[in-house]
Amino acid sequence: MKRAKTKWIEKKCEEIEENVGKNNTKKAYQIIKDLTQQKLSRATTIQDKNGVCLTDERRHHREMDRILFRPVQPQDSKRSQHHQEP
To answer: If DSSP codes are grouped into helix, strand and coil, which group holds residue 5?
Structure first.
């Protein structure tokens, strides 16, 4: 595996040198960018409100349903009396 990676990098270096020699710096810099740019991991975990990973898809949907569709809490009686119109 390591040998294959080394061979692949050497091939890319040859491509860079070739493109620089042909005055095709745009292609050369694109290859350099592809080689040196950090790859971002797209994997994310879904956690419940306690920080526990929800790996089971059904558990995740149950948790989201509970959060999104929870019953409306009654307002404080003092607040509701204060905001009533005469």
So the answer is: helix
Helices (H), 22-56: 25-36
46, 54 Cβ separation under 8 angstroms: yes
**Tokens at 19, concatenated:** 């493109």
Distance, in Å, from the CA atom of 18 to the CA atom of 12, rounded to the nearest integer, reads 10
How far, in Å, CA of 13 to CA of 7, rounded? 10
Contact 16, 28 (CB under 8 A): yes
Q: What is the pLDDT of residues 18-68, one digit of tens each?
A: 999 999 999 999 999 988 887 776 666 777 778 777 666 666 677 778 888
Amino acid at 3: R
Q: Are 51 and 45 in contact (CB under 8 A)?
A: no
